[in-house]
Design brief:
flat, three-stranded antiparallel β-sheet
Length: 138
């Protein structure tokens, strides 16, 4: 494919070994970019973003893509939920001011990760206790 700065509706190119393709989605939420790499004939897909994503390798219907990568529908990770609830309490001016502070964002991200880990560990313990109690009653 020739280098060009014009917009195109489709592109066709050879994807040789050791080459990568980055798809940048320019999204404010969800996936930020997708990196597709061909290493020794094996294709690897990596996705990054502020939310989780789903990957499916089943064709959804005739003439459809062989692979699908996107944001999960109706599913939200606990981390994303807590982060959204935290930032959602501020007005636009506050939000703009606070999000410009990288140290604050790092500290908050670390703390939210700790909260998620604590919640998940506690939930697993409590649910396992219920399972054991139910097995004993049978």
């Amino acid at each position: 494919m020739k280098k060009s700065k014009r917009f195109v509706k489709s592109a066709e190119f050879s994807f040789g070994k050791g080459k990568s393709l980055v798809v940048s989605l320019f999204s404010n939420c969800g996936l930020d970019r997708i990196i597709i790499e061909n290493e020794h004939g094996i294709v690897h897909v990596k996705a990054t973003g502020r939310s989780r994503f789903e990957f499916d390798e089943k064709k959804q219907g005739p003439h459809m893509c062989d692979f699908w990568l996107g944001n999960p529908s109706m599913t939200i990770a606990l981390f994303d939920y807590l982060e959204g609830r935290f930032w959602g309490q501020f007005n636009w001016g506050e939000l703009f001011r606070y999000q410009k502070n990288p140290k604050l964002k790092r500290v908050l991200t670390t703390e939210i990760k700790k909260l998620v880990d604590e919640f998940e560990n506690n939930a697993a313990r409590r649910l396992n206790v219920i399972l054991k109690e139910q097995k004993i009653k049978k």
